[in-house]
Design a protein that fits this description.
Number of strands: 13
Radius of gyration: 18 Å
Distance between the termini: 45 Å
Strand order of the largest sheet: 2-9-6-11-5-4-3
Number of helices: 9
Mean pLDDT: 89
Number of domains: 1
Low-confidence stretches: 1-5, 10-19, 24-30, 294-298
Length: about 300
């Protein structure tokens, strides 16, 4: 095997996307876990949650993995990307997360991916966002421009799963999201991601702050307009992000996941089929490509 061999689960460039939650269930073999109601909620609100999906002990290890990765990444150029004052995003290799296989094979995760993105969905990103004491409110934003399939046809071509490393309280800068805004066009916004301040009142009226507990997981469209809120707590709030694409959505180009040959060989075949990564003899530090410039403030 070449040291930098690229493993890609599919060579297809055609989008496997679906027009409605009804089609997401009826146009393909239904997954074993019934997520019909959750898919409907996702299409309506742009976010849906599953409480208590993981044991708190599992999340304790996840938090340790994230904070270990943070202190390593913050010391090198490009290792941690600022998302505002006292707030950073760090991308990871799958091997940095002890429970990676548990996460990507969880029945709810796989059922949501299959139902919304199709059976050839792609695991393209794993990382985490961490606000610390003193983090400020972010501008309302989405994580990347909306594709034509979404703003015209109301098809979702990607998903983001989030898991908190702590029980979130009001003083921990809870994630705030404006339900239903995944369908906003956004092509006239700066960078096609940041609605003008004249529009913010609409998002503030819709805005809902989320207070997940350890073990909860959410699934959202990263196009649903959201923001981080002020974080006066001395306790950091790391939250894991798993990014998943439909074939052809293209977000893998923004990331650079790597695994070693032994790790790749030990993965279940069902994971190897979906994981977009480089297979390398030695893991290299990730220099991040997805820098949301409008969040780099202060």
């Amino acid at each position: 095997m070449e040291p930098a061999a690229l493993f890609h689960p599919t060579t297809s460039t055609a989008l496997f996307v679906l027009r409605s939650p009804r089609e997401a269930i009826t146009s393909m073999a239904a997954p074993e876990t019934d997520v019909r109601d959750d898919v409907a909620t996702l299409y309506r609100d742009g976010i849906v949650g599953n409480k208590g999906a993981f044991a708190r002990e599992w999340v304790d290890q996840l938090k340790e993995d994230m904070m270990t990765a943070f202190w390593e990444a913050i010391r090198r150029p490009g290792g941690a990307v600022g998302r505002g004052p006292r707030r950073w995003y760090i991308e990871l290799h799958p091997q940095a997360i002890t429970g990676f296989v548990d996460l990507v094979t969880h029945p709810w995760v796989t059922a949501m991916c299959e139902s919304v993105l199709g059976p050839e969905y792609q695991l393209v990103e794993i990382g985490f966002d961490t606000p610390f004491q003193g983090a400020k409110v972010q501008p309302w934003h989405r994580d990347f421009p909306s594709p034509k399939e979404t703003y015209e046809d109301r098809q979702l071509t990607s998903l983001a799963f989030n898991l908190t490393g702590v029980d979130v309280t009001q003083d921990m800068g809870p994630f705030e999201i404006a339900p239903g805004t995944q369908w906003d066009d956004g092509r006239e916004w700066p960078a096609e991601m940041f609605p003008d301040q004249s529009l913010w009142s609409r998002y503030e009226e819709r805005g809902v702050r989320k207070f997940p507990r350890m073990g909860d997981i959410s699934c959202r469209s990263a196009l649903t307009v959201h923001r981080g809120t002020p974080h006066p707590s001395p306790i950091a709030r790391p939250v894991l992000v798993l990014g998943v694409d439909a074939p052809g959505a293209g977000h893998a180009a923004l990331h650079d996941m790597m695994v070693t040959p032994d790790f790749h060989a030990a993965l279940p075949e069902t994971v190897r089929q979906h994981l977009v990564c480089r297979i390398v003899d030695q893991l290299e530090p990730i220099t991040q490509k997805h820098d949301i410039e409008g969040l780099v403030m202060g």
